[in-house]
Design brief:
Blueprint: H1 5-18, H2 22-28, E1 29-37, E2 40-43, H3 44-58, E3 59-72, E4 75-86, E5 99-111, E6 114-122, H4 124-132, H5 138-143
Parallel strand pairs: 1-6
Antiparallel strand pairs: 1-2, 3-4, 4-5, 5-6
Helix pairs in contact: 1-2
């Protein structure tokens, strides 16, 4: 029995992000998979590794919680939240030691037991606001 899109998505967040397993990227992400994140597309594990390494170099105690999933056919939508500590300068900002919280949504398409396409949307502005000073997320600032 093959793994569902939902189960594969949960494995991605658990193994890649929570466990920090770089080797899981090549296991779960197809060689020609495309990850759409903002205006940039990343193709395959080789192009995804620099993003993973930058996040690992910037944040410690990183933990992603899968808050909700919706699966339809070969796609799954994941609503997630992430906590981490800003302990590195991987984003070009000196480490602050601050504990951070960010949310996002990811849609993943699965084929042949691997992730073959993904659309990523997360609150990078809110993350930077927390790092840079106010501690208020972009959502809070917009509602103020």
């Amino acid at each position: 029995m093959s793994e569902s899109a939902r189960d594969l998505a949960k494995r991605w967040f658990e193994e890649v992000w929570n466990q920090g397993r770089r080797d899981a990227i090549a296991t779960l992400l197809a060689p020609d998979a495309v990850v759409h994140d903002g205006g940039a597309d990343t193709v395959g594990p080789e192009e995804f590794y620099p993003f993973f390494e930058r996040m690992q170099a910037t944040f410690s105690d990183l933990h992603v919680s899968v808050d909700d999933t919706i699966e339809e056919g070969d796609k799954v939508c994941v609503r997630w939240s992430c906590t981490a500590k800003h302990t590195g300068s991987g984003l070009g900002v000196p480490p602050t030691g601050k504990s951070l919280h960010v949310t996002g949504m990811t849609i993943m398409r699965v084929a042949g037991g691997r992730l073959v396409e993904g659309w990523q949307n997360w609150d990078m502005l809110g993350l930077l606001e927390q790092i840079k000073g106010s501690g208020k997320s972009a959502t809070y600032i917009a509602a103020s």
